[in-house]
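Marked as duplicate of an earlier ticket. Keeping the data here for the record.
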Amino acid sequence: MKTRQTREIRIGNIRIGGSNPIAVQSMTATRTQDIPATIRQVELLEAAGADVIRIAVDNPKDVVALAEIRAARPNANLAIDLQENYRLAEKVAPFVQKLRYNPGHLYHIEREKPVMDKVRYLVDVAREHGCAMRIGVNAGSVDPAKVEKYSKEDSIAPMLESALEHCAMLDQLGFDQYAVSLKDSDPNKVIDANIRFAEARPDVPLHLGVTEAGMPPDGVIKTRIAFEQLITRGIGDTIRVSLTLPFERKGEEVTVGRQILDDIAGGRFRSVPRFEQKGMNIISCPSCSRVENEAFIELAQNVKEMTEYAKDHDITIAVMGCRVNGPGETDDADLGMWCAPSFVNLKRGPESLGHYTYDEILSRLRVELDRLIEEKRQAAGVLT
């Protein structure tokens, strides 16, 4: 294993980067405003050994709830997920140790305002309250201006450019207490993106994760492959295992993360250098507090079971749990679903096929899946 070279940053009572142990993170799955349930989530994750626990805040009512959650768990290292309302940073910063923002979402908010002004605001808030920051770049939500600069086949370059650009902004503002993440549902792209970033900025701590890894065991396998290939290269200072799990089992993300770290440290490798996806590929996001209907978790499991008959076909189906990441993250799937409170949006690639109730969606998905299989069969016949 190569030695990590990144600088050190502080998140509450832990430090990441440098020679510090790799920290393990997770995220609460319940609605933030359901205060008892979210406190229960924090307790479960702490009991599992989470070093940092992330909570999503989308509106002022979530901020009020966050204050109560903090009061109930005063010693937890909490990170906040700023998605569609970066201006909430000043409201939540007194209660957390880390702020996470997505450059792609920042691009879409207050478009008339220079991005640098938005970043300056976040830095000022973080500095005032002693918070670390994470620049969280996701493959499905990179700002369009960067995506348009590169070919459709190169999804890593826009992510990399976005991350490096925002690092430069924070550097210019004299703020060095930040980490970066570059996530994709494809472990090979996670590996390549993080290797390229580490070559460009070996000083910046990296948060590793395979987003929308899906359900165990497939999600664990994808994550393990990425972590083994990166951590042995000295890349990675904190990790998050993203699995689609029932609320009471969220602690398994932490348990799996620590097991992978233990195996790497002990030289027990279970994967191969490259992940070769063969057959049906179910992508599903981790259950988190942005999920608008808990039925999403059951739906993901039902999709996996229903598509068993097509397991040998090279088809990707994405099941997303919210409006924040759902629309963009399903664009590259053959068939995609993103879940609203009372219905599910069905897509074929970027094309919308309408929305259906939770009771209707499986049968409708089956129709579209059979149609796609037949089209692929006919295309193969033409080629031969």
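See parent ticket for discussion. The CA atoms of residues 25 and 240 lie 5 Å apart.
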